[in-house]
Every structure is written in structure tokens, then in C-alpha cells.
């Protein structure tokens, strides 16, 4: 019974072997990469004509084709093409250019004009510098300036005292008062300038609440012994804020100021709360 069933199974296996061989051969052919060397004869949109000896073959190229260098070869260049046979068509996978690149364009100096004559110049020994001869003449040459004469020493003359003539004593003249004569007006002495009050350069400290803020001043409300007073404090580039910002209205600050030009200039403004 077992032998009767094994016969059809063997026939199926024998018939399936050629199909497996064909499929394996087709897949092996599909992944086989071949190489051909030749000269590019023509370029199409998706094809390239390569001439090898006396035979021309058409190779399909596409976006999967890699070029070395990264450009499409021109007509007349020698290339090496790696391709794969798919349904009898040569599909290129890699195209390598074998033609060397042309030398870059360089600029050279123009040739000498026609009619020029060339001669050989013998190298001479370098001349040795010789010292210049002095000029002997009665008058100095123009490049020589006269030396300034030394200053003469002054001799102190003996001081002579002139005799002082004694003036005769003069008696004071009597002044007779005439009626209606105006009395001489006494000269007014210039008023002495009052010295400017010396500013107090002592730093003072106050603690209060910011009531108003402007670009160049702060108004601080100070409460001392039951009395409330608003003091304007001038601020500027020399003022140091702690932290590094201007205090807002309602914050409590400690200000270190000094009286300058009749006003209070704040040097340090520190936020307490």
C-alpha cells in the first residue's frame, strides 16, 4: 500500500526539479553584474550608446545609475560600464569615466614683441663701496651749515647808587571854607564777596518707600517720628542699583545720597523689600 502511494510523489518531484532549476538560473542571472569597456558614441534621454571594437551596444541608464565622476560622460569619452541583464536589456548600475580630465585653463605672459634681440650679459663682481673724498675749499659747500656761535658771557656791571636829594619840608596849606561849597564824597570801598557755602560732602542714608519714578529722579516717602516727608533723589550714570534694576513704585529702598548743587544725588539705591 505504501509503495503504490510513493510512485506519484516521485513523479511530482521529478517534474518539479526542472522548474526549480529554471527559477534559480533566472534569479542568478538577474543579480549577475557584468562589465564592458568602450567609447561613448551617443547619449539619449535614458540610454547611452557604447562602442566596443566594431560592435555598438545600448545601455539603459536611470536615477539608480552612479557616475564617477559625478556627471554624465560626453560623446568620445572612454567608459567602463557595470550593468545587469534584465529581460535581455542592459541596465547600467555604475559608469566610470576612463578619459583623464583636461588640464585647467591657465594664463601665461604674452611673447616679446617681434624684432627683439637677445644678448648674453656676463655677471660682474659687485662694486665695493669707497669712502667719499673730502671737499677742500675756502667757503663751506651748500650741504654744510654754519655752526652757531657760543653765546657771549655777560659781565655783571658794578651797581652805582645815585645820591638822593632831600626835599624841603612843606607846610600844610590852610583850607578856608567857603559858603555853599560841596563837601567831598567819601569813596566807597568795594564790598567783600561773600564766600559760597561749602557743600556737605558727607554721605547720608535714608530708608523709605518709592512713590514716583522718572528717568533722572526718584521720589521717596520717609516716615520719621510720626512725620511723613517726600524727598526727591536725583539718579544718574553714577548711581548703583542693588539689584541691577530701577526700583518700582511701592518698593522699600535704602538710599545713600550726598548733597550736590543744592540737591540730593543718590549714589547707592538698595531694595530692602
Shape: flat
Regions with little confidence, pLDDT below 50 for 5+ residues: none
Strand content: 25-35%
- Report the biggest beta sheet as strand number plus sense, adding barrel if it closes: 6 strands, mixed
Give me the secondary-structure topology.
Layout: H1 2-30, E1 33-43, E2 47-52, E3 55-60, E4 66-68, E5 78-86, E6 89-97, E7 204-214, E8 217-224, E9 227-234, E10 240-242, E11 252-260, E12 263-271
Parallel strand pairs: 3-6, 4-6, 10-12
Antiparallel strand pairs: 1-2, 1-5, 2-3, 5-6, 7-8, 7-11, 8-9, 11-12
Descriptive labels:
mainly beta; OB fold (Dihydrolipoamide Acetyltransferase, E2P); five-stranded mixed barrel; 273 residues; 1 helix; 11% helix; six-stranded mixed β-sheet; single chain; flat
Structural commentary:
With 273 residues, the protein is mainly beta. Among the domains are: 33-97, Nucleic acid-binding proteins (OB fold (Dihydrolipoamide Acetyltransferase, E2P)), CATH 2.40.50; 204-271, Nucleic acid-binding proteins (OB fold (Dihydrolipoamide Acetyltransferase, E2P), Beta Barrel), CATH 2.40.50.140. Helix content is 11%, strand content 34%. It contains one helix and twelve strands, in the order αββββββββββββ. The strands form two sheets. The chain has a six-stranded mixed beta sheet, with no helix packed on it. The longest helix has 29 residues, at 2-30. It starts with a helix and ends with a strand. The mean pLDDT is 79.
